[in-house]
Write a structure and sequence with these properties.
The protein has 321 residues and is α/β, with parallel strands linked by helices. It has 2 domains: 198 residues, NAD(P)-binding Rossmann-like Domain (Rossmann fold), CATH 3.40.50; 105 residues, UDP-galactose 4-epimerase, domain 1 (Alpha-Beta Complex). Helix content is 39%, strand content 19%. The chain has 10 helices and 13 strands. The strands form 3 sheets. A 7-stranded parallel beta sheet has the order 3-2-1-4-5-6-10, with helices on both faces. Its EC number is 5.1.3.2. This is UDP-glucose 4-epimerase GalE. Keywords: Isomerase.
Length: 321
């Protein structure tokens, strides 16, 4: 079983490469290293390049007979997408279509897509299930929703089967300490809190303490990156067994507030972690929590690392490296 992992040098992609290798798959990673790191790819074949390069893709697909393609090579910063929408539509939409067209040309029929909870926009209810209305409020979310809709068309026209996995908040790091989160710039709460704990930043900023939540801070659903990789593995098995195209929300189903994350990090690290209170940010919902019953029932997915302390402890081990 040979799998092409696009964006496999990034945070989630690198954990996926490790899970595939553990499962006995032969892995080819394609990454332009704009947001990833060569040393994060723990095995298999690495190819430096971009999915915008049709000639390169043609050579890769001519050389390797892939059972499936996994796609993690997207830009992900919401704020940047508002400032530079062209960058997001070019890479996240146009380049992805380039990849899908190459799959059609070489008759590779299975595709795993890294999607996002941002396709839902402002939540009308929580927890958010797969039937929740899709109304993304920024170019990042719109770019992902555009691809999801295109995948439906590619299935109907070309028989290309896909699974879209909609993440809420990926967090944590490889329990063995081999890889972890190192975005530049970093925008995710847990690594920012741990950078404050390690002294790499002076403090953690808390945007709003007047939300309708028990402690007044926003509540989010955090999922360990290893559990995320396992969900992709099960989605791959589903497609390889002849399963139909589908989409799943991925989260623990339990939300943790910003203050709960800070308190847990203080407990795990033994560090004081100074905070600075600031005004709410525009567009920050009070609660974002996933209803992930569908993937649990249909694919048998069960998060092993749902405990917040475990997520933070693994991320802290990586931060201290």
């Amino acid at each position: 079983m040979k799998i092409l992992v696009v964006g496999g040098a990034g945070y989630i992609g690198s954990h996926m490469v490790k899970r595939l290798l553990q499962g006995g798959a032969e892995v080819v990673t394609l990454d332009n290293l704009s947001g990833g790191y060569r040393d994060a790819v723990c095995g298999g074949t690495f190819i430096y390049g971009d999915i915008a390069d049709s000639s390169l893709l043609s050579r890769i697909f001519s050389t390797h007979a892939f059972a499936a393609v996994m796609h993690f090579a997207s830009y992900i910063q919401v704020g940047e997408s508002v400032q530079e929408p062209a960058k997001y539509y070019q890479n996240n939409v146009s380049n992805t279509l380039n990849l899908l067209d190459m799959m059609v040309a070489f008759e590779v029929k299975r595709f795993i897509f890294s999607s996002t909870a941002a396709i839902f926009g402002e939540p009308q209810y929580t927890p958010i299930d797969e039937q929740h209305p899709k109304n993304p409020i920024n170019p990042y979310g719109r770019s992902k929703w555009m691809v999801e809709q295109a995948l439906g068309d590619y299935d109907r026209a070309y028989g290309l089967k896909s699974t879209c996995l909609r993440y809420f908040n990926a967090a944590g790091a490889d329990p063995d300490g081999e890889m972890g989160e190192r975005h530049d710039p970093e925008t995710h709460l847990i690594p920012l809190v741990l950078q404050a704990a390690s002294g790499r930043r002076e403090q953690i900023r808390v945007f709003g303490r007047d939300y309708d939540t028990p402690d007044g801070t926003c509540i989010r659903d955090y999922i360990h990156v290893t559990d995320l990789a396992e969900a992709h593995w099960l989605a791959l098995a589903h497609l390889l067994a002849g399963g139909d195209s589908c989409a799943f929300n991925l989260g623990n189903g339990n939300g943790f507030s910003v203050q709960e994350v800070i308190d847990a990090a203080r407990q795990v690290t033994g560090k004081p972690i100074p905070c600075a209170d600031e005004q709410r940010r525009a567009g920050d919902p009070a609660r974002l929590v996933a209803d992930s019953r569908r993937i649990r029932e249909q694919l048998g997915w069960q998060p092993r690392y749902a405990d917040l302390d475990k997520i933070i402890a693994d991320a802290w081990r990586w931060e201290t490296r």
